[in-house]
Amino acid sequence: MEKRKPTIKEIRKKEILDAAKKVFIAKGFSATTMENIIAETSLSKGGFYYYYKSTVDILHDLMREGMSYRVSKMNEFMANYSGGLDKQALAEMLVDKMLDESDLMSVYVIYLQTLKNNTELRDLYPVLVEETLNLTHADMTNASIGDFECFATDFMMYFMNTIMLGCEILDAREIFVKNRKFFIEVIKLYFEYYDKEK
Predict the structure, then answer these.
(1) Same domain for 41 and 77?
(2) pLDDT of 92 above 70
(3) Residues 23 and 32: beta-carbon distance below 8 Å
(4) Containing domain of residue 71, as a range?
């Protein structure tokens, strides 16, 4: 089957998102202007604004790109995992998500750092949580909604975000990776606790 060619719109949006990712990582979200991102693309100002009206809109699409990336990583994990979708697999996938080292993770951490003082980004958080769960349920091979309800809790979301912040801000990723098994066991303990409490 021949692979579908991307449309001009898809090519332009990818160019903008790649440029924005680069600028956000270099300058941070709050210091980035639309003009900074436009300067990193081949688009005219009018052409650029046809696709995006604000840095928040761009960041939202980058978060969606990160969601798709994570689901593909989870499906890749499951293709190589012999145990089926059990608590062990879920714990390992969550730990891999927390310890991931990619530009998309760096942008997500920039988002987390900025949302405290930015109402638009704070309002975006519940939308992102819902979109993440919906995408995971829809695109994750051999998964059902019930498989993921235990990590959609506030505790698990904040726990994962805390580890991701530690990886990026405290430069603790290497230490955390060395202790990957510990994190897996902690998450499995949480799953047991969650099952007893519900």
Answers:
(1) no
(2) yes
(3) yes
(4) 59-197
- pTM, two decimals, is 0.86
Lowest mean pLDDT among 20-24, 26-30, 77-81, 106-110: 77-81
What is the rounded distance in angstroms from the CA atom of residue 74 to the CA atom of residue 61?
Answer: 20
Indicate whether 121 and 192 sit together in one domain.
yes
Same domain as 45, residue 73 = no
**Cβ-Cβ contacts under 8 Å for 59 (sequence gap 6 or more):** 20, 24, 29, 107, 111, 121, 124
What 8-state DSSP symbol labels residue 150? G
What single-letter amino acid sits at 94? L
Is-contact 144 137, C-beta < 8 A?
yes
Number of domains in the chain: 2
Over residues 105-126, mean pLDDT: 93
Regarding whether 85 and 70 lie in a shared domain, the answer is yes
CA atoms of 157 and 175, how far apart (whole Å): 21
Span 54-59, average pLDDT: 96
